């Protein structure tokens, strides 16, 4: 990772480590929340938010830190719930036992619930942003997280198990389940930076490509990666009888679609590079499609 992104990541992790304060209730809830928040991972969503904001408003990325924390909390809650026996029933996440394997199912559910609600507290209490900006961010994150976004996509994914799924349905699943929070990361940066509409539209389109790139790569790694590299069991899509880009189209065609979205994302960045320094977004794009875990 380059020096600029390393700086953003280090700053983010410092703030994240203090993001869940203890209470007087003397429960394991906060411990369970922090267990999953600090379980590792590449932090691609908060990094995408902070890098985009830093590109749009150089050296002003601090204004996005609380929103980036909120985004990571929503993402982490979704992983905790996704790993539960009622859904994907996974034992490993990022090379560690999943939350419910360590704390039990009921506490894992509550830790996810708490992270989701804590996310909106982080944004609403961020006095570095105007009240109007905070309302816009809360609205955007609500849409990205809820029935119109990630949860809606997860629902469509679950009800599509063991069924023959057409490609347009699969695209809708991942545009919402995976793409919604990636799209929010960039949209949030444009809201905070208050940029013109044309640049905002180009960046959101770039985010849409990123979401599809991330998912196709995920599908490929699930079939052709290793548990050691991924930090979670491979073959889980097959076990759960899920349709993926690879099972639907085959490896060669899935890789061809991946390459097309990479090319279109690179074209958008080349256009934006006439106005902005896109080095960090170029790096993150490569991270999305070259990753091995």
Automatic annotation (TrEMBL):
GO molecular function list: (2E,6E)-farnesyl diphosphate synthase activity; metal ion binding
Cellular component GO terms held in the UniProt record: cytoplasm
GO BP terms: terpenoid biosynthetic process
Keywords: Isoprene biosynthesis, Magnesium, Metal-binding, Transferase
Swiss-Prot/TrEMBL catalytic activity: isopentenyl diphosphate + (2E)-geranyl diphosphate = (2E,6E)-farnesyl diphosphate + diphosphate
One Pfam family per UniProt: polyprenyl_synt
Keyword Nucleotidyltransferase set for record: no
Cofactors: Mg(2+)
Enzyme Commission number(s) of this protein: 2.5.1.10
Cross-referenced PROSITE patterns: POLYPRENYL_SYNTHASE_1, POLYPRENYL_SYNTHASE_2
Similarity comment: Belongs to the FPP/GGPP synthase family.
PANTHER family: FARNESYL DIPHOSPHATE SYNTHASE (PTHR43281:SF1)
Name by which UniProt lists this protein: Farnesyl diphosphate synthase
Organism of origin: Staphylococcus rostri
Species lineage: Bacteria, Bacillati, Bacillota, Bacilli, Bacillales
